From TrEMBL:
Residue intervals of the Endonuclease/exonuclease/phosphatase domain: 26-278
NCBIfam families noted in UniProt: exoDNase_III, xth
Cofactor: Mg(2+); Mn(2+)
Site note Important for catalytic activity, residues: D248
Keyword Ubl conjugation: no
Site, Transition state stabilizer: residue positions: N175
Molecular function in Gene Ontology: double-stranded DNA 3'-5' DNA exonuclease activity; metal ion binding
One Pfam assignment: Exo_endo_phos
Domain of life: Bacteria
Cofactor notes: Probably binds two magnesium or manganese ions per subunit.
Marked site (Interaction with DNA substrate) residue numbers: H278
Protein name: Exodeoxyribonuclease
Binding sites annotated in the UniProt record for Mg(2+): N28, E56, D173, N175, D277, H278
Biological source species: Streptomyces avermitilis (strain ATCC 31267 / DSM 46492 / JCM 5070 / NBRC 14893 / NCIMB 12804 / NRRL 8165 / MA-4680)
Length: 287
């Protein structure tokens, strides 16, 4: 379990959060070094986000350009995987966190670069990269083990936060499309990882008021639409045809979810302008 923390001076833009608006963006960068060369740096310079959650960073901090590793105006924690070139999650915050935690207390998964959380005023924000799985292989068994442990953590985290008068926001690549509206070709993917009945049932438990107690914020904001999708395969013309999956979620405790006023996917204008196979998912919370 390792983390690299980089702290910068608090910028004036943090006044937005103090004034009552919190903007949170989550994106799987599909390799941060590659994304940095294809447009991530320019996107980062323009984003209005107060918190940025990255997944699948796939790099050690010292392998990243300085402007990505510790950009001006951001406090950054990188949690790379013990296996080099795999997974990896990061959190960028305009304000210095009060506390940072890497992993969720799992002997098997805490070194895997799949979870990091930070305490900010009134809210704990986490970046999650849930295993993708693969039917009929150990990777799917690993995914199920992760899901079992992680649901327990989510419940404990929610209860601890409530006792402290805090909200929780877990952002990331959950690698599960919960409903038919969450992927274009749902009929052709019913036996594939990411849309298996067991996976969807588990995510339903996370989002059940009687069980996990969390809210899918984007779906709450867009209840009657297909998507909005956040991942498109690089194969074929999936992006051009908007044949995608919605697997990147901002999942919040009900008190925070009720304060979400706007949510959108920052979809690139063209296939050539993409810097990842995922697009940033952004939600604005009026605190």
């Amino acid at each position: 379990m390792r983390a690299s923390v980089h702290l910068c001076a608090r910028p004036l833009s943090w006044i937005k959060y103090r004034a009552g608006v919190l903007t949170v963006t989550s994106v799987n960068v599909n390799g941060l070094r590659a994304a940095a060369k294809k447009g991530f740096v320019e996107w980062l310079a323009e984003t209005s986000a107060d918190v940025l959650c990255l997944q699948e960073v796939r790099a050690e901090p010292d392998q990243l350009p300085a402007g990505v590793r510790a950009p001006d105006g951001w406090h950054v924690v990188h949690a790379p995987a013990a296996a080099k070139g795999r997974a990896g999650v990061s959190l960028y915050t305009r304000r210095e966190p009060d506390r940072v935690r890497v992993g969720f207390g799992s002997a098997e998964f805490d070194g895997g670069g799949r979870y990091v959380e930070a305490d900010l005023p009134g809210v704990t924000v986490a970046s999650l990269y849930l295993p993708s799985g693969e039917v009929g292989t150990e990777r799917q068994d690993e995914k199920y083990r992760f899901m079992g442990e992680f649901l327990t953590h989510l419940k404990d985290l929610r209860e601890r936060a409530a006792a402290d008068g805090r909200e929780v926001l877990v952002c990331g690549d959950w690698n599960i499309a919960h409903q038919e509206a969450d992927l274009k070709n749902w009929r052709g993917n019913r036996k594939n990882a990411g849309f298996l009945p067991e996976e969807r049932e588990w995510l339903g438990r996370v989002l059940s008021p009687e069980d996990g107690g969390y809210v899918d914020v984007m779906r709450a904001l867009h209840p009657d639409v297909e998507g909005p999708y956040s991942w498109w395969s690089y194969r074929g013309r999936a992006f051009d045809n908007d044949s995608g999956w919605r697997i990147d979620y901002e999942v919040a405790t009900p008190g925070l979810a009720a304060k979400a006023v706007k949510g959108f996917v920052e979809r690139a204008a063209t296939h050539e302008e993409r810097w990842s196979d995922h697009a940033p998912v952004t939600v604005v919370y009026d605190l």
